[in-house]
Design a protein that fits this description.
This protein has strands spanning about 15-20, 35-45, 45-55, 55-60, 70-80, 80-90. The protein is mainly β.
Length: about 90
């Protein structure tokens, strides 16, 4: 993304993550026929964890302690303007 302002001509790298969650009544499998899904867009710039709690997916700073109900899905680290480290968890 390039700024529209002439005094700010540097580029900012942003990772866009699209998420889609559903109620966990399908034994952990994605329910392609589910009518009640929740869509979310995360815009990440820096070091963050991607976390799911029930049907909510959000980003939190890397050093954030998680609640017992939180499930860490991934860690994203921006290094030198490039996303070099994307670690996913199952």
């Amino acid at each position: 993304m390039v700024s529209q302002f002439p005094e700010c001509q540097h580029q900012t790298q942003i990772l866009k993550i699209l998420t889609k969650t559903w109620a966990r009544d399908s034994h952990g499998l994605f329910d392609y026929e589910a009518q009640n899904t929740k869509n979310n867009i995360l815009l990440i710039n820096g070091k963050f964890k991607v976390v799911r709690k029930k049907n909510d997916v959000r980003q939190v700073p890397e050093n954030t302690e998680l609640d017992m109900e939180d499930r860490e899905l991934a860690r994203v680290k921006l290094d030198g303007g490039k996303f070099l480290h994307i670690i996913t968890h199952r």
